[in-house]
């Protein structure tokens, strides 16, 4: 059939991929389509393994259009210095903030990353900022990002010396939400709180249900790891 690619023909595949690169470049620089720029960056990164060029496209798309996914990936490049960009957590932090606030694909991941960097303080001149970390974890948790919900729970269990008081009812709330989203340790912590009546009413049955849910999630994760290793 005309138009179909024979993926067993190396030359035909190469021509197809080269044509994709031309098409994405046209979309990005001629049509000024931010999604086209993202496709071009993904093509350069994933197909051509040309990380330097991919970084340039990501920077263009983030700086010019504020494209959420490009800002996220540019931030990830700056974390490790990939593609010849400066390895700099402060720059990565700025990219993640921009991605988070822009909304769209990868924005929730970016909100979580901002929370992480604010929480440990490595990207901030003033050191750890629990209030800022909480703000961005809450954004990511509201978007359904389980690790942020779990981190919020841990923050409310521990509290800190900078104004965040321990609050076990909030800790239980976020542990339960993390569990609903499939976080093993969220389920385990929520189970323990129910068993002890810490932050919620003591409820042995609910504690057992949550413990069983944690076991199910842990078993599913082990199964995925085994299949991945086959």
Description:
It comes from Poecilia formosa. Required for assembly of mitochondrial respiratory chain complexes. Pfam families: Sel1. One of its GO terms (cellular component) is mitochondrial intermembrane space. The chain has helices spanning 10-29, 34-46, 51-65, 68-80, 89-102, 107-120, 130-142, 146-158, 168-180, 184-196, 204-229. By secondary structure, it is an all-alpha fold. The protein has 2 domains: 22-143, Tetratricopeptide repeat domain (Serine Threonine Protein Phosphatase 5, Tetratricopeptide repeat, Alpha Horseshoe); 146-229, Serine Threonine Protein Phosphatase 5, Tetratricopeptide repeat. The model has no long low-confidence stretch (mean pLDDT 91).
- The total domain count is 2
Largest sheet properties: none
What general outline do the C-alpha atoms trace?
elongated
CATH topology of the largest domain: Serine Threonine Protein Phosphatase 5, Tetratricopeptide repeat
Point out poorly predicted stretches: none
Mean residue pLDDT: 91
What's the Cα radius of gyration?
22 Å
Q: Give helix and strand order, one letter per element, not per position.
A: HHHHHHHHHHH
Label the structural class.
mainly alpha
* Share of residues in helices: over 70%
Number of strands: 0
Total number of helices: 11
What is the name of the CATH class of the largest domain? Mainly Alpha
Indicate the CATH architecture of the largest domain.
Alpha Horseshoe
Strand content: under 5%
End-to-end span in angstroms? 36 Å
């Amino acid at each position: 059939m005309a138009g179909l690619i024979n993926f067993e023909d190396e030359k035909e595949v190469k021509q197809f991929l080269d044509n994709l690169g031309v098409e994405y470049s046209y979309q990005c620089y001629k049509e000024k389509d931010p999604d086209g720029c993202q496709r071009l960056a993904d093509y350069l990164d994933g197909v051509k393994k040309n990380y330097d060029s991919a970084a340039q496209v990501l920077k263009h798309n983030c700086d010019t259009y504020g494209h959420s996914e490009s800002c996220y990936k540019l931030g990830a490049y700056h974390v490790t210095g990939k593609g010849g960009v400066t390895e700099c957590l402060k720059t990565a932090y700025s990219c993640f903030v921009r991605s988070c606030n822009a909304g769209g694909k990868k924005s929730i991941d970016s909100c979580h990353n901002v929370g992480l960097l604010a929480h440990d303080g490595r990207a901030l001149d003033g050191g750890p900022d629990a209030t800022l970390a909480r703000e961005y974890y809450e954004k990511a948790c509201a978007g359904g990002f389980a690790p942020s919900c779990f981190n919020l729970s841990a923050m409310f269990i521990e509290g800190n010396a900078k104004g965040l008081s321990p609050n076990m009812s909030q800790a239980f709330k976020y542990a339960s939400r993390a569990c609903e989203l499939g976080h093993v340790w969220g389920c385990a912590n929520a189970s323990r709180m129910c068993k002890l009546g810490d932050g919620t009413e003591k409820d042995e049955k609910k504690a057992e249900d949550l413990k069983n849910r944690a076991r199910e999630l842990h078993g599913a994760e082990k199964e995925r790891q085994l299949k991945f290793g086959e």
